[in-house]
Structure formats: structure tokens, C-alpha cells
Amino acid sequence: MTHMLWVVLLPFLGALCCLILRGRAVAGTGILFSLAVLAVCTNLLPGIWTQGQIRVELGGWAAPLGIGLHLDGLGTFFLLLTAIVGVLVGLYAAGFFAQDKKHNAMGRHFWPIWLLLWGGLNGVYLCSDVFNAYVLLEVTGLSAVGLTVLSKTTASLVAGLRYLLAAMFASLMYLLGVGLLYAACGQLDFVLLGQDMTQSPATLTAFGLMVFGLLVKTALLPFHFWLPPAHSSAPAPVSAILSALVVKASFFLLLRIWFTVFPALTGQAGSSPVLPPGLFLGLLGGLAVLWGSLQAVRQIRLKLLIAYSTVGQLGYLFLIFALLSVSHGAGGGPSGATDWTAMAWTGTVFHVFSHGLAKAALFLAAGCLALAMGTDDLNAMRNIAGRMPVITFTLAMAGVSLMGLPPSAGFVAKWMLLRAALASGQWWWAVVIILGGLLTAAYVFKILAYTFVPSQDETVPLRPVPPAMTLTALALALLCAVSGFRAEEVIALLPHGLDGSPLSAQGGSP
Amino acid sequence: MSMTFWLPLIVLSSSLVTGLIIFVLPEERSRVRTMLNMAGATVKVAGVFLMAWGLLAHGIAYEVRFTMGLGFDFLLRVDLLSLAFVSLSSNLWFLTTLYAVGYLEGSENRSRFFGFFSLCVTASTGVALAGNLITFFIFYEFLTLVTYPLVVHKGTPQALAAGRTYLWYAMSVGAVLLVGVVWLQALAGPFDFVSGGVLHAMEHAPRQELTVIFALLIIGLSVKSALVPLHGWLPAAMVAPAPVSALLHAVAVVKAGAFGVLRVVLDVYGKDHAAALGLLTPLAVVVVATIIFGSLRALMQNDLKRRLAYSTVSQVSYIALGAVVLGPLATVGGLAHLVHQGIMKITLFFCAGILAESRGIHRIDQMDGVGRAMPLTMTLFTIASLGMIGVPPMAGFVSKWYLAQGGIQAGQDWVVAVLATSSLLNAAYFLPMLHAAWFKPLPFKPDPETLSRGIVHGRLEAPWTLLVPTLATALFSLAAGMFAGWEWSPLGVAEKIFAGRGSMP
User: Fold this and answer.
1) Residue B382 domain-assigned?
2) Total count of domains within chain B
């Protein structure tokens, strides 16, 4: 079981190697390490499948004293998503940063920072206590900012600075919460904290601070201001990483904090203030879905459009807090109450997964288009559907998943969330989900409609795009479609060890 | 196991695989593309015939089922109803592909066109074979997505606008359909289509909820089946090339909508149960309004394709009429019309395409005397038009006759009045065209430039790839009426479907 440690160590080692090496060897080493990480992650799967969760105490010291690594079904999902997207984006980056001298220079910095970021992400999914989570989140945040400013354009520097300030502020809030929590409870481990959580002013404040910090990092609606400029001004592979992976890490931590550490405050058993915190997050999420998508419809730059779409799509993730904040007795119909908690979980995790793949595919495709056309202005697109059919197909496939239409992973996610909303009697969330889907369709088809505009005679010729770039984008989109067909296996992983979540009490698959 | 499992999959994937290969085929490999297309279409037609033979002669149940882990199964199943639709769409796909090859000769982006064309047929095959509501929904939405590129194929501002209209209609209403499907599943649990309906078995199901869900489902289906007031996209989509119109109207989209209405009324709610819940009367009002309104609007059009489009709005609702009129014969008439309308309307669109391509005729006032210049095309056009009006012994007459009989059977005499009015209106918009074409003189020689834009052909009035499919469908529609009494005519099959409904698994 010690190879769980390698999940974190390998990327860091890779980052070191890439830092030392020069020239072409950097990209090669980077890809090699990416593949190794993917292999290690897949290697963990059977263990999770049979045991539900794995825990490793580093140095042999048990929980309150030592540092532990803890992996469960939920964490495995995030790990796998990161590894899949990571490897494909890495292959893409090899082509992307080889296009000219300027990009070559960027590529030299890309690989070490990206692998550092990857290590941080994996660490977040594996760590078992709130403080190590902070450290790793900080690693993630700082390296993400580093990647954002890679292109050194004014726009990216401004966006990066804004991102840096937001991220620093957020982690400070989180750290403050951790400090309070430690003072009040005397321990840091997720599970131990959750077991004897009591309501006191100190823990309540800690809860508020930690959640607030994580919300800022996940760019929930009023705190989304830093996301669109940062994600849209970064180079394409970086945008894919930021949108598909980085925001998911803080969301993961939020799930942990919410359902494992503070079930006493957030669960049905907890106090019910005027506005339950879960409902509040759900409301913000719903607003984010609508607002983000509306903003996306209004954009005429492809990358900015996709970045706003991230703001909207992240909103769906927060519906789970509202869906699960309702008491279990409310569910009507023949389907039992625990049934829809499972649906809400499945829907949310599937949304993380499908959005990660689809959004990465979109950003990579946008990068190909920008390389071919020299700009990402939608108005400049002329007969792209005819001249770059594979890229158009990629955009369409990824778009279909974002809209939540079959056949795609996004459909599974939306289907599950819809069912959870209807089965639990909270039909208004169904309205939000449907409206969000329509708005998503509006911006996806806005892109696709431009690709059909016929070319005039004076059309600028397109620059050739390396097949490695087109094909990796396509692969991501196809994966997204295919995983919608085999949802069963994916879902089977889920019930295992979502400890602290209402699901773990239930056991079997839904 | 093996063949009963693989055959539906082969039928489904024959067009899917063809489509995907065509996407990656270079633009100039038109010969390979045509070969592939025809091969795929042949496999599909052969597969459908095999399934029909197996089901009808040996009672073999073809079924593909695998679980998705989402609380429902992905289920393809062949029953008589799906067989009727899938044989219609597979045969017409074969002919439409042949037609499209001739029609689009030398134009741009043909790989893309034929790729999506095949995907479109895949989607409608899936709609036909879907064994439960969710599988139906999956293919139904897929159909929306793959027809969009066909509608905007020309890329002109009008085409893009029409595509946008189509999408807005289809997507927003698709969302309503999804809510209905999810809600019904939350209420009734997973279920498959069963003839006679599923829901009457659920006594505890609240009436009100079932009513709302029925409304959601029908609204969700009403865009594709072009029920008033959600028909607006169909005339707008006429900017697409003629084979696409033929496909939209006769093979895929509109038919999928009407087919969905049949499935929901007959196989989910059950006609009797739906009537008991009081759901059929409002639907009947909408259907009748659509029949009359569509005909009236058709009368006002001068553009040939738009007139045909409004005619579709009206005629497709006959199918739904078969589902809402209680008499059993009406159901038979509606089912038969599913096929009849398909072959007649596709003939009309094929003819309209030939007229537009070889003579530049787009409007009805340009049709004067064209019968003398293009006798074959206009003869076929006439056959299909007379069928649409319902002149005996044409196919349209048979469906109308059965619908009316069903109405009388159930004591719903208004059906006869509706049919009579509609037939009158049909005559009012078809006969003037025929009159103009056959009896008015050619006003002037068409200017040579218009002629030269048309396709160069020998002594035929149009290339054979355009004429042969048209001839075939016209003959089908003639035969469907003349030999309606034959066991395997569309009517005969419809009767079988109806009779077999009770005994089917």
C-alpha cells in the first residue's frame, strides 16, 4: 500500500527532473512521469474496489500524531480524472509548446510547474487532515498562478495577479479556520474531527471561514471574478488544467469539510437556522448556473466564452448541498429517501468528471483553433466545419456533454441530479437544471453556428495544427461521450467509503 | 441469443458506422462515399427484412438490453410498431441517399452532409427500436443534434437563422420532455413499452400527476410532430436542400415526433387509460386544430416547398388522430398513415427538388405548363398529390377511410367532418398546382441560363439518380392504396399491429 505515497511523490520528482533538464528532454520526461502517475493511479483502483478505502500512516504514526494518507471512492474519482486529463493535456502540450521559439520558452517552465501542481492536486485528494490539506492547496494555488502568467502578456499578468490575490486571501481564510478548529478540538484529522464535532462559537466560526475560503477558490458566483480572465488569458493547455482540474480540488475539499468534518452543522440533525447553509450554497450555485451561462452566451471570444461556461457549470456542483440539506422524510413516491441521496452524490461526482473532460476538450480545441486562425475571435471563424472537421466534431461532442444531452457523461450527471431533485420533492432545482441546460445549448450552438459560416474567397489560409493536438482534444471529448454509456462501473465505485456522507450508511449501489 | 441480440444492433449501426467513416473520408472520394452509403443502406434494409421475417413468421423476439446503472436499461426491442417505422425509414433512407447523391453532385462539403445524413437515420432507427421511454429519449435528442448540421448545411444567413429556430424549438421542448420522462420514472419506476399501456396497472398513481406528466410528454413531442402552435420551425427549415426536407418530413424528424405520440398514448398510458383520465380530449382538440390550420396555411403559400411543409403539418397529425380517436379502426388508419404519409410526402419533395434543380421552379406561379416539359416528374407529382387528397384508390384514401370508420365506430362523428374539411382543403391547394402544370400553357421558354444551371442530362428530364427514387416512392404509394387489402401492405401490417397488440410480449 505504500505505493499510494508515489501518487504524490512521483509528480514532485518529475517536477524536479524537468527543472534540471534542458531542451527537448523536458517534454519527454514530463510525459514519462505523467504516464507513470496514471499507471500508479490505475493501480490503486482494485484496492479501492475491494476494500472501499485505503489508509496509510506515514512513518507508522497513527492519526492524531502522524500524517496519514487516506483514499476513498470519492478521492479515487478525482485522482483518476486528474490523471486522465493530465496525461492527455501533457501530450497536447508537447505539440503546443513546440510550435515556435516563444512557445518553446514557455514550455520549459510549463512542465516543472505543472507537475508540481499535479502533485499538489493528488495530495489534496489523499491527505487526511485539514492542515496538510491547507499546505497542498497552497502548493496548488501558487503553481496555478505560475501557469497562468506563463505567456507573460499584460492581460495574463493582470489576470494572474488578481488570481494570486484571491487565492492567497482564500487560503488565509481557510488557514484561520484551521487554527480555530485546532484550538477548539485539539486535532486535525478529518474523520476524528467529524466524530466529536460539537457546536460552539469557535467551531461555527471555523466552519464559516473554511467554507468561505474554499468558495472563493472554487469561484462560486459572487467570488468568480478572478476566474474568467485567468482561465481565458492562459495558454490553451493551462486553461484546460485550470478549468478542468484546479477548481475541482477546492470543491473536493469543500465536500470533505462539509460532509465529513462538520456533519453536525450541515446534516439534517444539525440546528436549522433561518436559512440552512446548504440551501444558501445551493441558491448561489443556481444563480451561478444562470449567470455564468448568460455571460457565456454574450461573449464573442471563444476562450472567454468557455471560461464563463466554467463559472456556470461549477454552479451545478453546489446543488448537492441544497439537495442533501432537506430532511430525508420529504421524498415522495416509491423511491426511497436514501435512494435520492445516492442519486445526488452520483450526479455531482459525475458532473465533476464530465465537466473536467468536456471542458478540457473545449479548451484544447479552442487552442487548436487559435493556432490555426491566429485568433480566438468567433467572428473570424470561416467554414471551420468544412476545413477543420475534427475540431468541430470535438467542440460539438464536448458541447453535447455540457448541455447534458445523451450520449455523454454530462447526460448521466444531469439525469441523476434531475432525478434527485424530483424524487426529493425539490422541483425548483429541476427548473434551474433545465434552464441551465438550455442556456448552455445557446452558447454551444453559438460556437457551432459560427463554424458553419461559409468561407469567402479572400479567406486567410489556416496554419497547420499538429495532429497530436487535434487528436488529444478529440480523445477527451470521446472519453466524455463513452463514459456516459458505461456509467454503471463508475457508479459502482462511488458508494465505497464516502465516509461521513449519508451514502456510506447505505452500503450497496443504488 | 446471438442473432436476436446482434440483428437490431446491426440494423442500428449500419448507418452509424457508415456515417462515421464518411466523416473522415476526403471530400473528393465521392465514388467510395456513394458505395459506402449504398452498402450501409442495403445492409440496413436487409437486416430489417430479416427481423420482420423472424418476428412475423417465427415470433422471434429481438431484444438488446444492457443496464446503464442509472436506474434504467438501455433497451432496443423489435415489436410490430417499431417494425413499421424502421422498415419505412430504412427503405426511404436507401432511396433518399440515392437521390441526394444525384442532387448534391459537385456541391461543397458532401462528406459532412452524408455523414450527418447517416447519423440522422441512425437516430430515427433508434427511435423506432427503443423499447422504453428513456432509450427513446436518448435517440430523440440525438436526432435533434444531428439534423441541425443538415438544416444549416448551406451556411447562408437564412439557413443559420432557420437552424437557430429549429434548435430553440427542439431544445427547449426537449427539456420539457426530459422532465416528463424523469418525473414519470420517479413515479412509476423503470418500465418498458407494453402494448395497451403500463400505467393502468398503477392504481395508487395520483391522477393529477399523471395528467401533468402526460402534458409534459406531449408538449415534448409536439415540436417534432409539428403540432400547432409549435410547428413554426418546420416551414422555416425549408431552406435546407431538398433531400434534407424529404428526410425531415418523411423519414426522420416529423415521423419520430408522431411515432412518439403513438408510443406515449398506446404503449405508456394505454388508449383506454388515457381516455379514462380525460387526457385524449384536449389532445384531440390540438390535433384537429393542427389538421385544419396546417391546410389553411398551405393554401396561402406560393412557395412550393413551404406549401408542402404546411401540408406536412396537417397530414402528420392524422397519425396522432389515429391515437386519440377511440375506435380501433382509427388506430389502424393512423398506423397505416405513418407509412402512407411518408412515401407520398417524400415523392412530393423529390419532385419539388427536381423542379427546382432542373428548371429553377421554386414557386407555384412558375409551374404553368411544366407538365408538358417534364411529363414523368409531373405524373409522379400528380400521383402523390392525389394520394394526399385522398382520392380512391390512393394510399391517402385508405388511411382517411379507416380513420373515419374508427370515428363512427366510437360515436365520434366529428372525425368525419374534420376529415371531409381537411380533404376539401387538400384538394384546394393541390389541384390548382396540377391544373397549372397540365393545362396551362408554358408561358415562355425558360431562359437558357436557368436551364444551364440545372444538371446536364441526356434525354431524360432529370438524372436517373433523381428520377429512380421518385419513381419508386410514387409506385409504392400507388401500390399501397391499390393493394391495401394485401396481407403485407401498410394497411395490412397496421391491422396486424393492432390485432397483435394484445398478444405481444
Assistant:
1) yes
2) 1
